[in-house]
Amino acid sequence: MAELIIVRHGQASFGARNYDDLSDLGRQQSRALGDTLRALDWVPDRMITGSLMRQKQTLEEMGFAGAAEEHAGWNEYDFHDLLNSRYGGVAPDDVITDRKTHFRALRETLAEWQTRGIPGAGETWGQFCDRVETSRQSAVRAGAERVLVVSSGGAIARLVAASLGLQNDQMIALNLQIKNTSTSRFVFSKEKFFLHEFNSVPHFHNLERAALMTYS
Questions:
Q1: How far apart are CA 79 and CA 125, in angstroms?
Q2: How many structural domains are present in the chain?
Q3: Residue 40, domain extent
């Protein structure tokens, strides 16, 4: 069966003016993953990213030859929009800049988005689910046996949860576990689509690279 590997982008620039930019550590993570996949003789014959800069930079740093397709359906949900909408227009500063406060608020906001909706948000939960599924269908269309996608934690968690038939709240738990540049592997055919491996980081499984691992 064919394989789809979905990579979460490398560490972005949390708290910076432009979050959508890999940190130096994020670039190191991406290069390490590319080197490891090549050492395992896994080279993609189709590459796809969302339209976010951090996703494109991750694929670039991985160092595979060839052009990538762009499919905005692989983008992350707009967490700043969700947070600002939930707080009536502008989220408190600590929700944006303090890591612990940010992720607690994000967990609560995602749960509210899934169950009751957030008025004023630019995308509904249903729309997010639909675009992830549309992106999956495009990625696994005929013509490639090894498909590499660079996406983001929310989209990956949604795809994993959907493939396993999990409840929405489990998507949140999955989302917050996904490491930067981790791989989630699916096998597929024309009729079938299965999760084979989740949140794997073989490129960090040695003493030299273990310190590169991050979750945000």
A1: 12
A2: 2
A3: 2-75+128-212
Is the pTM of the predicted complex or chain greater than 0.85?
yes
- Same domain assignment for residues 6 and 41: yes
Which of these three, 99, 122, 145, is where a domain ends?
A: 122
**Whether the Cβ atoms of residue 159 and residue 196 lie closer than 8 Å to each other:** no
The three-class DSSP label of residue 198 is strand
Q: Are residues 146 and 199 in the same domain?
A: yes
Q: Are residues 71 and 83 in the same domain?
A: no
Q: What is the pLDDT of residues 66-88, one digit of tens each?
A: 999 999 999 999 988 999 999 88
DSSP-assigned letter for residue 22: B
**116 and 137 assigned to the same domain:** no
Nearest to 125 by CA among 154, 92, 163: 154
pLDDT at 16 over 60: no
Number of C-beta neighbours around residue 67 at 10 A: 6
The encoded tokens of residue 20 equal 């959508």
Question: Could you tell me if 83 and 176 lie in one domain?
Answer: no
Query: What are the DSSP calls for 96-115, one per residue?
Result: HH-HHHHHHHHHHHHHHHHH
What SS3 state is found at 79?
Answer: helix
